Amino acid sequence: MTDVVRKQVLTKLTHGDYNCEKEFTLAMFSGKYKLVILWELGHVKSMHFNELFRVIDGVTKKVLAGQLKELAADQLILRDAYMENNRELVVYRISDLGQTLLPIIDQMYQWGKQRVQDYQIPASFKLAVENDLPKAP
Amino acid sequence: MTDVVRKQVLTKLTHGDYNCEKEFTLAMFSGKYKLVILWELGHVKSMHFNELFRVIDGVTKKVLAGQLKELAADQLILRDAYMENNRELVVYRISDLGQTLLPIIDQMYQWGKQRVQDYQIPASFKLAVENDLPKAP
DNA sequence: CCGAATCCAAGCGGATACTG
DNA sequence: CAGTATCCGCTTGGATTCGG
Fold it and tell me: Which residues form the signal peptide (chains A, B) (predicted)?
């Protein structure tokens, strides 16, 4: 969805349709790990590729590389490469623009936390999940 | 992705992993039209299916029905059916829980608006989009 | 008016292996 | 260390048709 929506939104914008601000924002972190990446990078100066790879649990290098590339293209993060004893090192860090997204992510975090706490999971969901995953047909 | 992520998140929660509040929130309106639906319903008392269908531009009935169903399952919207001269009518309206999501959507709107205004679209994007869409191979 | 049913396309992410 | 290169399958959404 990510890329599709991003393109659609940008097309709209170039045609003067400005009724897609929300979608635009959503598209920014639609991608399975973008939110986590932003979150992680929002809390430290910078991270290496493999640091992110280790900390993000479940992601593959290919996918991680893809997400980073998109985030960089949207200018939410920055990629800096430099040499150190004849080796190229790369760090990723959040951009100023990316910083401005953190309050929203934070609100999402608060909302999710609240919701998880005082509602807990509806029993119907629990059942659905339990019936769904353990037994693979 | 939507449903996949939702299930993953719920599975995590049932297992005591509570490190997915952001993803949980994101999953709530990950779906191409959920945000717009929430937005629309956030501004009026209620809407009929076809009202939404007309106002949402580009959506098909099947997809709309699907998104509404998911939103209702997540209890962000409510579906009320009632009879009127021997015809069943249905209205959708936002739930109290859904209301609590509106501030976030609003922030997304503000962010998107701001970004669209003062950055405009990078020329590279414009070109990419223009080269991409008009000519269908 | 409010969808459900069917069929189909492609996007997005996953697995694995390989590279400078 | 920081990625590419392939291959591949599931999910999501689109087109169209049909029904109560």
Answer: none
